Amino acid sequence: MSLVPLTLNLILGALLFGAMIVGLRLNKRLKALRESHASFTKAVAELDQAALRTEDSLAELKSATLAARTALSERIDAAQGLTERLARLVADAEAKADALAKLETAASTARPILLRTVVGAEPPVEAVRSLPQSTPRSRAVVDDELFDAGPLTLRAGARR
Predict the structure, then answer these.
(1) DSSP codes, 59-101
(2) How far is the C-alpha of 44 from the C-alpha of 21, rounded, in Å?
(3) Could you tell me where the DSSP H helices lie in the chain?
(4) pLDDT tens-place values along the chain, 160 residues long
(5) 101 in the Ramachandran plot: left (φ > 0), alpha (ψ -120 to 50) or beta?
């Protein structure tokens, strides 16, 4: 064997050995790429499932919102009706309070006239002042006594 073919065979063997090392490295990288591709596919599948669950949750949320809106609008309508009724009751109460105030004013001006008619003379100022005056506070005490006293009992010949 001569030196030239032996040298060429050694060079060719070194090149084949280098190609084999590059091939092993490439195989290693391709294996890692396949594994990352598999994990990427798994992540995409999980993301798709999460998107489907989100869509279902949004549909449930929309139906719950619609039900809450309906219930709330019914409550608002009922509250508006009650507000109007309360406004009417307050207006009626104010009108009755005004009428009562007018009656009290008329009654307080009529007391001296009534005393003059009954007694036959001008009543003393102390007599007019000593007449019981009806005030909201005195009525409240009477109401409290009425409700705190318990059930009413009627006795023969007695007034309560």
Answers:
(1) HHHHHHHHHHHHHHHHHHHHHHHHHHHHHHHHHHHHHHHHHHH
(2) 35
(3) 3-119, 125-130, 136-148
(4) 689 999 999 999 999 999 999 999 999 999 999 999 999 999 999 999 999 999 999 999 999 999 999 999 999 999 999 999 999 999 999 999 999 988 888 877 766 665 555 555 555 555 545 555 555 555 555 455 555 555 555 555 555 4
(5) alpha
Task: Enter the tokens of residue 129.
Answer: 């002042």
Instruction: Fill in the amino acid letter for 126.
Output: E
Cα pseudo-dihedral 146, 148, 152, 158, rounded to 10: -60
Residue 109 corresponds to which tokens in the numbers above?
């001006």
Q: Are 112 and 123 in contact (CB under 8 A)?
A: yes
Write down the domain spans for the chain: 11-124
Main-chain dihedrals φ then ψ at residue 131, nearest 5 degrees:
-65, 140
